[in-house]
Amino acid sequence: MACPVCGELFYAKLDVDSPAYDMRLDLKPVGEISEPWRLPECPRCGFVVYKAPLSRAETAACRAVVYSPEYKKALGRSSYYRAGLLYARLGKPPFPTANNFLKASWQEEADPARLREDQELALRYFSAALAAAGERDGDWEKAELLKGELLRRLGRFGEAADHFSGLLAMPEFKGNFLGDIAAYQLKLCARRDASPRSLQDVRDSKKPALRRAWIAVRRALENVKEKITGR
Ligand SMILES: [Zn+2]
Predict the structure, then answer these.
(1) Is the confidence at residue 35, as pLDDT, over 90?
(2) More confident call, 65 vs 15
(3) 70 part of a folded domain
(4) Which residues, in sequence order, are CB contacts of 61 under 8 Å at separation 6+?
(5) How many A from CA of 148 to the centre of ligand 1?
């Protein structure tokens, strides 16, 4: 493809549709596919092609961002971090901007300082999306759950617990899986647990205590087996 910003021609690797997978509470897929969908990025100017084609006005706006000192400083950062910067500078709505920084947090998980910055930025834009939300749709539910998840992952347990208690008082979070997630998050906050957790952990938390103990034993045995076989 041709870079809309600098005209460089390059090959872009893209992902094909993946089979069903489990995911963590921050929506990062669990298992073989543990990365967000790849975004094409220009090897010359570092522009992340978030959409194609771009209108003439969009191209001009993107060029101004890509050639700014702030973007140049971010060239070593992940593709979704740069996509987040582009969205923020182009004035895109807060929900998709937050999603870019959330995915950046998956990509940069191995670097604690970058992970924290990505999570702070995602939290800021999910909070902005909630402040601007008109109707309580799917994006609203997601933003509510992710705001709490990010507070917990950042170690702000008191604020996270208040947030999830507030959600549990709403009809949208009563008697369904969203409510199960919020209730599980409250337990994690009480334990001051900031670790990544999966939807499977939420499902397991609903099972009786004996069954949960058996699941823990089975997981430990699987870990041992993986270490022995080197898988
Ligand atoms: Zn380029």
Answers:
(1) no
(2) 65
(3) no
(4) 90
(5) 37
Residue 55 is encoded by which pair of tokens?
A: 């209108």
* 107 falls within a domain: yes
Number of domains composing the chain: 1
Burial class (CB in 10 A: 0-12, 13-18, 19+), 56: exposed
**Gap from CA of 116 to ligand 1 centroid (Å):** 28
Residue 53 lies in a domain: no
Ligand 1 centroid to 8 CA: how many Å? 5
User: What's the pTM value of the predicted model, to 2 decimals?
Assistant: 0.86
Neighbours of ion ligand 1 (CB under 5 A): 3, 5-6, 8, 42, 44-45, 47
Q: What is the mean pLDDT of residues 171-176?
A: 95
| pLDDT above 70: residue 33 | no
In-domain check, residue 129: yes
Taking the centre of ligand 1 as the mean of its atom positions, its distance from the CA of residue 86, in whole angstroms, is: 14
Distance CA 39, CA 32 (A): 19
